[in-house]
């Protein structure tokens, strides 16, 4: 098979899946995106198919011929216990049936509260949240499938997202559109603590490397981030790009988030155990990835400019 025309199958058409498709197409790859409806805006040149990833036969069928499969699926928090283990099993079986590598995007939740210590690949799993413990168990399952030789699996972990296509994030729809319209940016927790943010194109480029490089499988990797700054500093950098000083509406607790309508009751009930992320430093050390694969995070000034430009052309966001 011509390497430039390898089939890469992406399950999920959220910000990670769409950005990943763009980056793969730029490298000349054949890209298949899969979501439940088979509808949505996808990059020109990508194939979009309908498929329920919770059904094994669907995943196996749509994975046929793939060189790499990417699990970029997601589910509402309250459905995790029911949905995520099934998706994991199906992704492993689908990749194994195709003889493909499997690349998984993951969160920082398994590490739990780190009390300001930088997170690395060696950080122990000390989650106190149900979601963090579940993510840790899923990680064990993916890596066990690799250890027994069933499928080659790589896991990439990212911090809070920002960048083009990113709306549902602490640095998303309540920040960039507000600042561009001269309104206060809404922030969570203590914004004067260091907090790592992952730029979406860096996430995508990192995941592609995990699917390409032979050093990657069988491990968890922290995807490239710049050295952590505070959220207030991030807002100041955004303000500098926009040409105005940031106004800030800070929401220090879950209760106030509900009052402001940021979180509905269901989401707030599920998210309260994870709110520690905004009340202690969240510092990611991605040096292991950078040294192994040679990919470094995009400088903040460049990443913020690209994000502002995207929001300026997507005013309905």
From TrEMBL:
It comes from Ktedonosporobacter rubrisoli. InterPro entries: Epimerase_deHydtase, NAD(P)-bd_dom_sf. Pfam families: Epimerase (PF01370). This is NAD-dependent epimerase/dehydratase family protein. It comes from the Bacteria. Residues 12-216 form the NAD-dependent epimerase/dehydratase domain.
């Amino acid at each position: 098979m011509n390497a430039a025309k390898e089939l890469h199958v992406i399950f999920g058409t959220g910000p990670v899946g769409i950005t990943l498709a763009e980056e793969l197409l730029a490298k000349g790859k054949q890209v298949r995106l899969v979501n439940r409806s088979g509808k949505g805006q996808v990059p020109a040149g990508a194939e979009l198919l309908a498929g329920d990833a919770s059904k094994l036969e669907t995943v196996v069928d749509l994975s046929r011929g793939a060189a790499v499969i990417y699990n970029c699926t997601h589910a509402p928090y309250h459905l995790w216990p029911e949905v995520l283990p099934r998706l994991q099993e199906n992704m492993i079986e689908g990749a194994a049936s195709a003889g493909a590598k499997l690349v998984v995007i993951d969160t920082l939740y398994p590490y739990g509260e780190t009390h300001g210590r930088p997170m690395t690949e060696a950080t122990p799993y000390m989650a106190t949240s149900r979601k963090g413990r579940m993510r840790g168990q899923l990680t064990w399952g993916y890596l066990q499938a690799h250890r027994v030789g069933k499928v080659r699996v790589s896991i990439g972990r990212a911090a809070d997202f920002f960048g083009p296509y990113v709306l549902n994030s602490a640095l998303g729809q309540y920040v960039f559109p507000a600042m561009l319209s001269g309104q206060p940016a809404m922030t969570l927790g203590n914004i004067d603590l260091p907090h790592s943010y992952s730029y979406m194109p860096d996430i995508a480029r990192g995941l592609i490397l995990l699917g390409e490089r032979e050093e990657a499988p069988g491990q968890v990797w922290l995807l490239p981030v710049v050295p952590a700054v505070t959220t207030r500093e991030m807002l100041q950098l955004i303000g500098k790009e926009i040409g105005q000083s940031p106004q800030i509406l800070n929401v220090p607790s879950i209760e106030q988030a509900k009052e402001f309508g940021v979180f509905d009751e269901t989401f707030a009930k599920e998210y309260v155990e994870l709110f520690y992320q905004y009340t202690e430093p969240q510092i990611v050390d991605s040096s292991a990835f950078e040294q192994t694969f040679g990919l470094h995070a995009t400088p903040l000034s460049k990443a913020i400019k690209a994000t502002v430009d995207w929001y300026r052309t997507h005013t309905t966001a």
